[in-house]
Amino acid sequence: MKFINVIQASPVESQPIEVVERKGIGHPDTIVDNIVDAISVELNKEYIRKFGGILHYNLDKALLAAGSSKPTFGGGIVEKPMLIVFGDRATTSLGEEMVDVDLLAKKVAKNWIKNNIRFLDVDNHVRFQSEIGKSAGNLSDIFKRKSGKFLGANDTSAAVGYAPLTKTERAVLDLERKLNSNDFKKQFPETGEDVKVMAVRIKNKLDVTVSMAFIDRFIDSELSYFRRKSEVMEQIKSYLDDSPFAGNYELHLNNLDVEGRGEDGLYLTVTGTSAESGDSGQVGRGNRVNGLISLARPSGSEAAAGKNPVSHVGKIYNLLSFEIANSIHKEVDEVDEVYVWLVSRIGQPINIPSNIAVQVIPKENSKEDEIVKKVSRILEETLSESYLNAFINRLIEGRITIC
Question: Cβ-count burial of 264 within 10 angstroms (0-12 exposed, 13-18 middle, 19+ buried)?
Fold first, then answer.
């Protein structure tokens, strides 16, 4: 069923309240999301190499349990390594050919950490535990039943995407990316990758709270910490002064800091991530697939990271709904804001959603019939065989960012 609804309503940009959050690459939730999706991409390659196609797996259940550390001015120690637990199911053999999924998962996780968290020593600061089991027979059988161009959905699930981003959403996304950019880390090597940005917009004023781990080996005293923190604050202010919120924002950085309490009164870490001691992580608790947690927007419950890209609609529809929404907003001039819901029914081919719903907020003096006509055309294109095949190939190869 396809339903296109043109409504008269205020876009989020025009509403008086908006709350937006982003968890940076070193946040425990983002770490575990990125790791399981990196494993997914490498497992895709291994299945294609050995079997000529992707077999059943879902690796979207994983946990990062925080370790224990003792940050100290000039450099502390990690007393107990963090633990990353891989879970869920995967196909480990076909005929006589085997795939060591446990070994692959550990290898990929180590490489991802080495490439993304500068001061996290993967050999000494991290332990791994694999609880990946054998795929269930009825779900594996979906891959044997393929009669058309696409597999049947392996779940009954729903996803929603939207466009465009608001000024607040863009500011939050761009700020975290700036703080974790190579240029910023060269200028401020003492700042860790664990960065979280929370913004609350009340009418035209933005209240921004940034949490950023500092790395103890670069900080020799409390005075040094607060001096460098002040310099980071100025950099953030410089960014916000160039944003639509120039002159109309309030900024807080590491709000738990208290002078006079030494290391315990500061956001000081050994590795640059709170996962060493302060916070655990879990797949699905972090950013949505567009990189944000926007509380004024509808949101699905599925985690895309680690899911199978050829049959699991929790991944396919999550990302596709945003792509369709962006296409509608870009190509239909009359659209001010758009939401796209995709709903699957288990066993039904993924190119035939059980329900498609599009909600459009039009610009003034727009004609509803023209909007419906143009949106219908885009839906036909984005669910066509050629488009969906190309989209799934991008998922298989990891060419679409998931968080």
Answer: exposed
**What gap in Å lies between CA 35 and CA 1, rounded to an integer?**
36
Could you say which DSSP state residue 349 is in?
A: B
Name the band, by pLDDT with cuts 50, 70 and 90, for residue 145: low
The yes-or-no verdict on residue 141 having pLDDT over 80 is no
Domain boundaries, the chain: 12-24+167-282
Residue identified by tokens 């060591």 is: 100
- For the domain made up of 12-24+167-282, the CATH class stated in words is alpha beta
The amino acid that residue 83 corresponds to is L
Predicted TM-score (pTM) of this structure: 0.95
Q: pLDDT for 230-280, tens place per residue? A: 999 999 999 999 999 999 999 999 999 999 999 999 999 999 999 999 899
Which pLDDT does position 212 carry in this prediction?
98
The tokens 């917009």 sit on which residue?
201
Burial class (CB in 10 A: 0-12, 13-18, 19+), 100: exposed
If DSSP codes are grouped into helix, strand and coil, which group holds residue 62?
Answer: strand
Largest CA distance in the chain: 69
- Dist. CA 2–CA 143, nearest whole Å: 27
